[in-house]
Amino acid sequence: MAGKVLQLTSDVQYVKSVGPARATALRRLGIGTVGDLLWHLPRNHLDRSSSVPIGKLVPGQTATVAGEVLTCGERRTRRGGTQQTVTVADRSGVLFCVWFNQRYVLKQFRSGRQVMLSGQVQVYGGRRQMVHPDFEVSEDAPDHADQDAAPLHTGRLVPVYPLTAGVGQHWLRRLIHATLVQVAPQLDEPLPDRWLAERGLAALSEALQQMHFPDDQAALGRARRRLAYQELLEIQLVMALRRGGFRDRPGLALARPGDLTRRLVESLPFELTGAQRRVLAEILADLRGGRVMHRLLQGDVGSGKTLVAFIAALFCIEQGYQVLFMAPTEVLARQHGQTLRRLAEPLGVVVETLTGSTPASERRTILASAGAREVQLLVGTHAVLQDQARLPDLALTIVDEQHRFGVRQRGESARGGDDDPVHLLVMSATPIPRSLALTLYGDLDLSIIDAKPAGRQPVCTRLVPARREREVLDECRRLARAGKRGFVIYPVVEESEKTDIKAAEAEVAELRSGPFADLRVGLVHGRLKPREKHAAMDDFASGRLDVLVATTVVEVGIDVPEAAWMVIQGAERFGLAQLHQLRGRIGRGGGEAWCWLVPSGSLTQETEARLRYFADHDDGFALAEEDLRTRGPGDLWGVRQHGMPGFRLANPLRDGELATAASEDGRRILAEDPGLQTPRWSRLRARLNGQYGDLVPLATG
Questions:
Q1: Is it the case that residue 400 has pLDDT exceeding 70?
Q2: 11, 409, 496, 698: least buried by Cβ within 10 Å?
Q3: CA 89, CA 92: separation in Å to the nearest integer?
């Protein structure tokens, strides 16, 4: 594209200094076009307008330092992992920088190189240190620094971007800066000037430039406010438009509950909770209402969502229809298939399970039976069922762990064999505060099971320092010898997944030869072949294993009532919501259960407070709210894995005023122009189409 002006839609490979090879690397970051590049926002900014001499660092403060790399090294930890240490010095002192199980960082440091680091200062063994600091190593020798680029990397608020192999921080920073200069003037402002003035918002072009390269903290704050508002407004509009579209679609109107539903409820060895009955009434009212149901069923771990979904499925099946039950992983699909078949067989209902590892001959048989109406409930993974299953009498699709699919799939899921709309019930065990759920899932009606079955005891949870790990393992051994099975959970971090799995494998060997020498110990992680993973989980569930060492693959999808204890290694590396999901794997049989949190090393005050909050609370909604306040909503909307922008900056809990304003403004806009067809809102319509594509049922005028 030599001599041509770059457009927002131009392929990123045509930007100067990119080319095909680097374009391939950028696409791994979700950057395919020039517009994508501009919206690849910094994950934070280093305040390099002033750095602190190492000798004046204060424990507990977050600071930026500049210095020279002295040494780099690595050692094995006693739990089988690795610890990377880099020493950095300036004229005032020496700083020790520590990482755990992240060998890749050592490739970026060399003795004599200049480096800037940012993190929380600690004192350990009398030495100043930072654990897992942000860092940037100079790509040039000090005497040959790129003087033209220096203002981008030093003496200012410096953006720090998410990276991938083949993309360096300095290069990406220069690339985005040059592209902004060339392309930012092309950015259309989707909101009228009067609207911006009324809300005190910066123009989109200015906000985007200041978000990347802010003049100061105040400018960064204004930029973040505008872009967060933009996200919240767009999501409100997308959800409102989708909701309106679904409500206008006619659907199957089913009759009253019949014999199957009654027989199941009467056969249960317990009473349904009041919350389950209330939610069932809401679902059955939708199924009988004549419009397509589009409902989210949300409930904490162990609240009985699967049973509610099965009763809804029976309501359709007893009237001659079929039901599809989709899960995001093979493990979860198999678990649901076993549970639902156990409930269905006494009722004469045929349940089959289909996943990627189902043998080809068996798959053909199941699909043929489903197509011949001989299978009433088909359970499986989304990828397999969406591509291959055709149920001629499909009335209801149930989608479990909705946050792992995303908005696009929940639209695709609500279709029968002839693309007729069917009822859709999506479930999530990720607790989300109601206010946030209404934003994230505004296209769905919301049902919440807010009570657990009677008799379920809280799990006794304790935070213990790493030095007491052996005491914990000895206690676990005593529990296992008494017939109580348990888990040892090991974290996996994306950047070093291979290393972490090796560490988990090393830990299994250490446990088998040490504290668990007389126990049967298995291992499961995400890189095992499906049959190996299933075999390990089946062995644990059946009692052929006493202990299962695992990565977070067990977060969902394994239900072993006898599992009574769990040790979570590196607990500081998990969010509260994920810790809650992990802890939800134990104590499901109603007896006592114990969970120990063992951090990798010393903790910051903030991290220790977060883990103690988890230890003291078992209400998933309270934990989710705390997690969202401290860490942000991240990918909860479930669209970024499909190349869609989710919450890059906004946090509806922290940005309450902006969320309220965006909600009000969204309603005002649609009241004025329900299809966004008038010239006043044409740029906003174009932006929604560009950002969200066919997720939005926009009128074309």
A1: yes
A2: 11
A3: 8
Looking at per-residue pLDDT, the higher value among 445 and 631 belongs to 445
Q: Which residue segment(s) compose the domain that 608 sits in?
A: 460-617
CA distance linking residue 215 with residue 149, whole number of Å: 16
| CATH number of the domain enclosing 584 | 3.40.50.300
Residue 154 pLDDT grade (very low, low, confident, very high; cuts 50, 70, 90): low
Please tell me the distance from the alpha carbon of residue 683 to that of residue 195, in angstroms, as a whole number: 14
Instruction: Among 602, 617, 632, give the residue marking a domain's end.
Output: 617
The alpha helices in 398-455, defined as continuous H runs, are: 407-412, 434-440
The answer on 588 and 493 residing in a single domain is: yes
Q: Residue 361 contacts by C-beta under 8 Å, 6 or more apart in sequence?
A: none
Taking only the tens place, the pLDDT of each residue in 37-75 is 999 999 888 887 778 999 999 998 888 898 999 999 999
- Please tell me whether residues 369 and 278 are part of one structural domain: yes
CB atoms within 10 A of CB 33: 20
Answer for the pair 512, 521: CB distance below 8 angstroms, yes or no. yes
The rounded distance, in Å, linking the Cα atoms of 403 and 441 is 10
The token pair at 308 is: 């509610």
- The verdict on 269 and 402 lying in the same domain is yes
Say yes or no: 416 and 488 in one domain.
no
Q: What is the pLDDT of residues 621-644, one digit of tens each?
A: 788 777 767 666 554 444 333 333
For residue 187, being part of any structural domain is answered with no
Q: What is the DSSP code string of 328-389?
A: SSHHHHHHHHHHHHHHHGGGT--EEEE-TTS-HHHHHHHHHHHHTT--SEEEEEHHHHHHH-
What's the total number of domains in the chain?
Answer: 3
Residue pair 523/602 in contact (Cβ under 8 Å)? The answer is: no
Measuring CA to CA, which residue among 153, 214, 155, 147 is closest to residue 180?
214
CB count in 10 Å sphere of residue 195: 15
* pTM exceeding the 0.85 threshold for the entire prediction: no
Please list, residue by residue across 67-80, b when 16 or more beta carbons sit within 10 angstroms of its beta carbon and e when fewer do.
bbbeebeeeeeebb
Q: What is the 3-state secondary structure (H, E, C) of 524-567?
A: ECCCCCHHHHHHHHHHHHHCCCCEEEECHHHCCCCCCCCEEEEE
Distance between CA 169 and CA 165 in Å, rounded? 11
Alpha-carbon torsion (188, 191, 193, 199), positive or negative: negative
pLDDT at 579 over 60: yes
Decide which of 689 and 214 is more confident. 214
Is the same domain home to 573 and 504? yes
- 414 lies in the same domain as 480: no
